[in-house]
Amino acid sequence: MAERYGILEEEKVFKDPVHRYIHVRDELIWELIGTKEFQRLRRIRQLGTTYLTFHGAEHTRFNHSLGVYEIMRRMVDNLGQKMTWDPEERLVCLSAALLHDIGHGPFSHSFEKVFHTDHEEWTRAIILGDTDVHTVLKGIGNDFPQKVSDVIAKTYSNKLVVSLISSQIDADRMDYLQRDAFYTGVSYGHFDMERLLRVMRPSEDQAVFKHSGMHAVEDYIMSRYQMYWQVYFHPVTRSAEVILSKILHRAKDLYGQGYQFLDKPKHFYSLFSGKITLEDYLKLDESVILYYFQEWQEESDPILQELCRRFMERRLFKYVECDPSAQMKIWPELIQLFGKIGLDPNYYLVIDSSSDLPYDFYRPGEEEERLPINLLKPNGDLRELSRESDVVEAISGKKRTDHKLYFPKDLLEDQRTFADEKKRIMTLLTAQEG
Amino acid sequence: MLNEHAKLLAVFRQTGEIIGRKKLQKLIYIAKKLDFPFFEKYQFHFYGPYSEELNLRMEEMCHLSFVTEVREKKSGYYQYRYSLSDQGDEFLKLSKYHLPETKDVLNELNEQSSKFLELVSTVLYFENLPKEDVLDKVFTLKAKQNYSVEDVEEAYRFIDHLKGKCECLQ
To answer: Per-residue pLDDT for chain A (434 aa), expressed as one digit of tens each?
Structure first.
């Protein structure tokens, strides 16, 4: 291992509301935090549009990344009491934890849906490309950036290391559940992390948990389950995401039609054309996106203008619960009626399903697709969590799917024009809810 | 309306039954890599490219009775068989979604074993790496599957064959 980065003369600390302090002793980590690519994460919110539902949810990918690093630092120290870490492997773990989200863009969930980009690919591009992050990582060794990238991509040879950053109970989730609970202000999402870290043990393919710590693991799974339904699947946040996606779709369609924007959206050109470079990508953050949304409120295109005003003024779409099998029977009539009243259904009538959301539930690992959480029995045997825990078993089999139909209720309630058609639309929509 | 769901239903209409979650996961991934219009997000999991989005979408379609799922007990694990239901077929008709001409390719993929598709999808996942690095990845990450050099060569030949077939379709 190269000697370029050693231990800082004096430990640096960041005050953090979730972990109290984030401790940095390694020069490498300090240098990585100072890179422009990492600092960009300060301008990207962790939960996208959730701040429109929970006003406290203004925390950023920067906070979260530091939090994941801190948890990984504690994991590595704790596991170090049961095993010996190669010094470079330890730095691989810490760097991967810190950089695991560095490829996220602004409102990345909607962006990825509309432009078919993948933040994990951008993470690899930033770590392996011509960036300050890459230069810093190379200070450890020429192959070090590749190792960090492989851990994040889950293709690293040491599967224990991979499992610490991405598995069904990992540093990433442990931080985001607690952090998102703290900033949204909800009372879910809390679990005994100290206990989890104390009962974590290394095994060949993944970290496992002492059976005596099962209740701490249960608590974590329950927190995760409640956070999904209470925060991540919140229907109001989903409405904001729907509008955001439709704005991006509209802007992209207009660009394709040769529409002349009042203020040329040059930051979007490469996204629209599908040929985005790393340099272009790194210029995108939420300030840039919100600047254009502000400007597009003045555009002559009525759809783009109206959707941007909606988003900026938080006049979100309303929703009804939706059963797609029943919906399909009335869908043609709805489409026709929307057309008649002058609302393009491609932008104003949207079904949003839970599979469009980026969060996943605990799964016991059937057909070997996902590694389950394993408990370590006193005799050395491993048992899958849901086979030992009634609580986890009870929620593992529960329905995890959900569909909602979003529409601009305010426009439909304006009865000055097309009163009969609007009344009929509302009847069809509300009939869905039974 | 729910185009991504309709697209998957169209796959079942073209292939008939698909046996095994792993096979379905790898089949869609390979089709995506062949530039068929699938947009499910994949990540490399312990057993190869895997999409949580696809997993949840399948679960949704089972709850909606668009897809029939049959669970069978095998030695030490459960296997799932998927096919299009009458309700799913009706939804597909009403959605008016048409998957491009993919039937030959999808059927050929469906005829392969899930173990071979796992290898093919892994090779495709690392397609930007030189062949020797791909071999290294396969032997390191898939050590338990005991793939041989000949197996990997076969996967490369199969990929070339599929790409050739897709070019003919265009």
So the answer is: 556 789 999 999 999 999 999 999 999 999 999 999 999 999 999 999 999 999 999 999 999 999 999 999 999 999 999 999 999 999 999 999 999 999 999 999 899 989 999 999 999 999 999 999 999 999 999 999 999 999 999 999 999 999 999 988 999 999 999 999 999 999 988 899 999 999 999 988 889 999 999 999 999 999 998 998 899 999 999 999 999 999 999 999 999 999 999 999 999 999 999 889 999 999 999 999 999 999 999 999 999 999 999 999 999 999 999 888 888 888 889 999 999 999 999 999 999 988 776 666 677 766 556 778 999 999 999 998 988 999 888 887 666 788 999 999 999 999 999 999 999 999 999 886 65
Same structural domain for residues A153 and A13? yes
User: What is the pairing mode between strands A382-384 and B48-50?
Assistant: unpaired
Domain range for residue A138?
A: 7-185
Residues A45 and A21 both lie in one domain: yes
Query: Has residue A338 been placed in a domain?
Result: yes
Q: What is the DSSP secondary-structure string of A252-264?
A: HHHHHTT---SS-
Could you identify the residue written with the tokens 């969060």? A359
Fold of the CATH domain B3-169: Arc Repressor Mutant, subunit A (1.10.10)
Answer yes or no: do B22 and A370 touch at CB < 8 A.
Answer: no
Give the count of Cβ contacts less than 8 A between chain A and B.
93
Q: Which residue of B has its CA nearest to A330?
A: B94
- Asked if ipTM goes beyond 0.90, one says no
> What pTM does this model have?
0.93
Last residue of a domain, one of A155, A185, A215: A185
Tokens 């029939």 sit at which residue?
B68
Q: Which residues contact B49 (CB under 8 A, 6 or more apart)?
A: B25, B26, B29, B42, B43, B121, B122, B124, B125
A155–B141 C-beta distance less than 8 A: yes
Chain B residues with CB-CB distance to A371 below 8 A: 45-46
Q: Which residues of A touch B78 (CB under 8 A)?
A: 366-367
Structural domain count of chain A: 3
What is the spatial distance between Cα A179 and Cα A67, in angstroms, rounded to a whole number?
Answer: 8
